[in-house]
Amino acid sequence: MTPSHPGEFIREEVIQDLGLSVSRAARILRVRRATLSDLLNGRASLSPEMALRLEKAFGVNMDMLLRMQAWHDATRMRARADEIAVRRYGLARESADDT
């Protein structure tokens, strides 16, 4: 199971709890409405800058938000592990061409 995107947490636990519209929250954060909307709807990753803006404006710990993003990203990438054609070094005999 993939952990929730941090945008979902921000939307439900911060923006909605404060009774803010996306437009109003974007003005408070001094970002474009589309930028915030993309984050809240999981279409964009949380950047360190946006995490700091959220911390400064709403008191949400930026480290926690960034850990949520990292956990989300790592889980999604692990689900795609078979697509990455890399073997652990030293477990398989390396040919002379691989050096």
Textual characterization of the structure:
This protein is an all-alpha fold and 99 residues long. The protein has a single domain, classed as Orthogonal Bundle (434 Repressor (Amino-terminal Domain)), CATH 1.10.260.40. Helix content is 56%, strand content 0%. The longest helix has 18 residues. The protein is elongated and about 60 Å long. The termini are far apart.
Q: Which structural traits does this protein have?
A:
99 residues, mainly alpha, 434 Repressor (Amino-terminal Domain)
Concise structural overview:
The protein is mostly helical. It has five helices and no strands.
The tally of structural domains comes to: 1
**Number of distinct helices:** 5
Radius of gyration: 19 Å
CATH structural class: Mainly Alpha
The termini sit apart by: 38 Å
Largest β sheet strand count, sense and barrel closure: none
Share of residues in strands: under 5%
Q: Based on the structure given, which CATH architecture is correct?
A: Orthogonal Bundle
Determine the CATH topology. 434 Repressor (Amino-terminal Domain)
In total, how many beta strands?
0
Fourth-tier CATH superfamily name: lambda repressor-like DNA-binding domains
Class derived from helix and strand content: mainly alpha
Helix percentage: 55-70%
Which overall shape is indicated by the principal axes computed on the Cα atoms? Answer: elongated
Q: What is the mean predicted local confidence, pLDDT?
A: 93
What sequence of helices (H) and strands (E) makes up the elements?
A: HHHHH
**Low-confidence residue ranges:** none
